[in-house]
Fold each of these.
Amino acid sequence: MNHLNPIARAAAALTVIAATAACAAQPVPRALDSAPMAPPAPRSAAPMPPPAPAADAPMPPPPPLAGPRDGVPTTVSGVVRRFVINPEGDVDGMLLADNTLVRFPPHLGTQVAATIEPGASVNVNGFAQASGTLRAGQIADTKSGRSIVDQPPPPDAQRLPKSLAGVGLVKLDAAGRVLRVTSAPRGEPDGVLLIDGTVIKLTPAAAARFTNLMQPGAMVAAQGYGTRNRYGESLQATAFGTPGNLTVLYGDLPR
């Protein structure tokens, strides 16, 4: 049995101690976070371009053209054929040579009739209505350059008292062929304009009873109360239908 001398045993002990110290000096690895790392966000794929049409593929049809709508700014030009009036006798419109009906508020009628005459060429700026009628905002005589702009009546304008409304109306009869149908502000039919310029007014509810007559070319007849003057004839119908076949609209009115 070999016995190490004291010097050898001391050297061996120092070697073990040095190795142990070296191991203790090594850094302790840091624990990883307990929460897993989020995967990287996927990259969004670029949109694929649409496939090119085949050479012999038919072309798609063009989108339909939008026609005039109610309230769309519109300009028309034409020759004034005649003025039209309401049952109270106020000029509230004019018919152009191409049968365009231009309407304006009754309080402008006197000014329009004093500025423009039948046969004059006019430019009208306004708004297309559902029925094809033009609501005028400005009417200009192309020859004289004079124009009328739609403005509210002045506050001090004289108005007929409500108690006297209809006092000047007379009983009228009318018959003829429809040139065009007139409409209320919301677009409902409310009467007809005859070829001779006579205006027959109905309430929208009454007009709805005669859908077969509310169309151009129909032969109609009416009785009612209105006005006949140098500009034309207009009546609010109390009976409506065809010649020789009238329907009484209001049973409590005198005939």
Amino acid sequence: MTQIEDAKRGVITEEMKFIAEREGIDPEKLRKLVAKGYTVIFRNKVHDWVKPVAVGKGVRVKINANIGTSRDIINVKEEIEKAKVAVKYGADTIMDLSTGGDLDEIRRRIMKAVDVPVGTVPIYQAAEEMLAKGKAIIEMSEDDMWNAVEKHFKDGVDFATIHVGVTKEVVEKMKRVKRIVGMVSRGGTFLAAWILHWGKENPFYKDYEYLLELAKEYDVVLSLGDGLRPGGLPDSGDELQISELYTLGRLVKKAREFGVQTMVEGPGHVPIDQIPAQIRLMKIATDNAPVYVLGPIVTDIFPGYDHIAAAIGGAIAALNGADFLCYVTPAEHLGLPTVEHVKEGVIATKIAAHAVNLTRFEDDYKWDYEMSLARGALNWGRQYELAFDKEKFLEIRKKRPTKSEGCSMCGELCAIKIIQGMLRMTNK
């Protein structure tokens, strides 16, 4: 049985109990949300060392960190370090997007290195194996694609991005609907190119029930990929993006009926004023499936700072119903992120998620409330205890040239200290 099948039967699984306790919510409420497909639980049946995580309605907004090798840079040790650093600074899940080296070994080593759910994009491996043979990506056979999916599921990945919505119909529309940036999803592009070359339907769409059978066997959450997400602000909300979205909505319904958990991936680059409408439309089109967004990135002119642009978009998206934020690092659009980039990306996205979570969960707000008390009392020790990134806190504090109670910006002109002193004097 899958989590959604058990939930429909009225069974509260061990995973639901674990998550309910961690989230501070009623297990029965969680069961009902899982039964409807409004919330999903990441835990592949064979990934027995993972701590399950829930994404969707009624639980905290979660964040994901992408890591992985490229064909240019293959350093497995560093990718494992990135995974550990991401988890240390708040990532709820990791996605291994490796495209260079021994992908099987890399994936398995990353999964062993962390105890959080791990996701992948299996089509990347099918494509890389073609290139390793000296062939073009479009020479992939349908069996090559399915073999990659099955291999990842057997290895224990908890969720997988499958670009099921890149159909032959929408690829034909691409000939008519012109975009500024074009198609930026790697997996989606591999399939679109394959469709254009062979004139055949996307195998994952054509044989969707077989995909559901594989996912059901291992209880993998299918992350229905946004192959036609906008890669630049001018393309946001166009016919291609919305057409794919409604296809994904139909596939969500079919998966739920089949007993498979699904979530839907969302837009990449979206003007800030369009984010609320786009998230709400995604929820309507997919009957409240969990929404997984990359950013969204709200401006295109700040390469090197895209983690900040994405955190702004992520906070607005989460406030309007997005459930799962994929981090963006300072290296986005520029190169493979370093360990430090991973840390910066995770913390920026964590800020976005926490800013929304504290409005929904008393414990999250209490953390901020306690920090306010500590600041009001100029209690630096307590502020250190409550600081999310204690290393950064100490790094900045140690550079102070003054030993006054305030920070070095205010020193003896500390507003808090002055007003407290005056209030004490006037109350005598």
Amino acid sequence: IGLSITFTSCEKDGLTEEEILNLAQATSFTVEVTEQGSGKSISGVEVSVLTGGVTYSLVTDEFGVAVFENIEQGQAVVNLKKEGYFESSFETKIEAEGRASGDVASFSLYSLEDAVLIKGNVKIQIDLTTDAYEHPEGITIAAVSGNTILASAVVDSDGNYSMLIPASVDGRSVTLMFPDVLYDQKIAVREDGDIVMKTAKGTIFRPYDKAEALPSTANILATIAGPNYTSGRQAYVESLTVESGVITGVELGDIGYGYSIYPAIYINSLNGGSGANIQVDYDYNGSYCSAERYRLDPDDIYIYSGGSGYPDYEPNVNVSTMHPSGFKWSNCDYLNETETIKSGDVYIIDVNYGTGTELGEIQ
């Protein structure tokens, strides 16, 4: 009955039934835009609101406000765009709920000037018969906060990537995600004393897990003695020089936090060889995490015993597979741990996928 009375009254004003229903669902919708962190109002923001299949567009005034009249209530997507700021989209619900002034929603934009820059190089070893590294061109690296992708970058043919991530002086938590990749891998194994070239079909390169050892090769397993980690931790061996079964030279990566000075490195091989005792002059600096993995100065590495029985090492033959950063400290890698980033920060994160995580079927 109420609807009939309203309809009769409005029809006198020349409105159709459909127009009356639309008016009953319409309200005013005010969008307020401020800068994340500073809280200052942002004028000149292009605001578009998609609701009910219709897009409404306005620009914020000097107070950072845009008022939409007679906009349909219900689920809506608000898009904000202005030069110098990250473009952002938000889902919201427009509800007047009988308020004469309609609905009001506040949103914040991140300034490009306050962005965090993350860049680096990604390498991988798909052909183990050479010393050269390749690059996983075309893979996408994503910066994630919760379930939201904040930014992403595609690795180019040289292995480089770069991305700007929205942040403020208050900081925000971000996880940098590197995808698993799958490649047919060329490997070299020993059969009856001879080096034979093979293809490992579908080798998985996963940047978070410790890599598995290649079969039929003399894989290097290097651990670091205490004092802080009595069970030892995996170390990063860049290369070895072996003469008559004895290690006479070694290149090592940064061994990280907590070892004060002169930690011992023990190197064993799955195909024979043990007893090498190497110490590193590494000054403790109190830093728990490092985005980069530096090769240690050869002058700081001391071979007290070269061991015995180690096989000869041709280039990338009989090398171990390895974690992308060479070794991994728990709660330390930028790869899979949440980091708090703040405006103006710059991170250079180089990632080495290594020689694979799960070896494919050898053919």
